[in-house]
Amino acid sequence: MTRKTDYALVALSRLAKERKGENRPLSARQLADEYQLPLPLLMNVLKELHRAGILSSRRGSNGGYSLVSLPENISLRHIIEVLEGPVNIALCSDSGHQENEEDCPSCTIMNCCPISDPIQRLNGMLQNFLERISLADLTTLESNLESNLPLAGLGVRV
C-alpha cells in the first residue's frame, strides 16, 4: 500500500470516531493538522474517497467530510481498491490477465507457470480477507480481526 492508503485509513478512522460522537464534518485541514499529514495529498485522498461514495462533503465554514455509511459497512478491500486499484499479489492474479500470455504481455510463461493456480487461490483468499475486515475493525479494540483470520484460510494470529 502507498501513503495514500495509509493517510486514508488515518482520516477514515478519525471520521469513524467522530460519527460515534458529535458526527460533525471534519475538514481536510483539521485532519491534516491533527495528524501532521501533508494537506495537498490528504485533500486528494479525501476527494477520491468522496467520488467513490465513502465520504460525503459539505462546503462552508462548518463544512468538511463525513462517512456516508456506518464503519461496519466499509470494507478494507473497498478502501484499498478505491485508492490503489484491484488487490493483486501478481500481475497474473488480475482476472483480466488469466486467459493467456497475450493478455499478460509482461509474463512469458503464462501457459506453463508452476505457481499460477496457487497464486490465484492465494489472491482470492487475500481479497476475501480484506473484504471481511471493516473500518470498524480497524478503529475499535473489540475488533473482528482474529475471528476473520480462519475464515480467510490464514492460520496466524494478530
From TrEMBL:
Pfam families the record matches: Rrf2
InterPro entries (alphabetical): TR_Rrf2-type_CS (IPR030489), Tscrpt_reg_Rrf2 (IPR000944), WH-like_DNA-bd_sf (IPR036388), WH_DNA-bd_sf (IPR036390)
GO cellular component: cytosol
UniProt superkingdom: Bacteria
GO molecular function: DNA-binding transcription factor activity
NCBIfam families membership: rrf2_super (TIGR00738)
Name used for this protein in its record: Rrf2 family transcriptional regulator
Organism per entry: Sulfidibacter corallicola
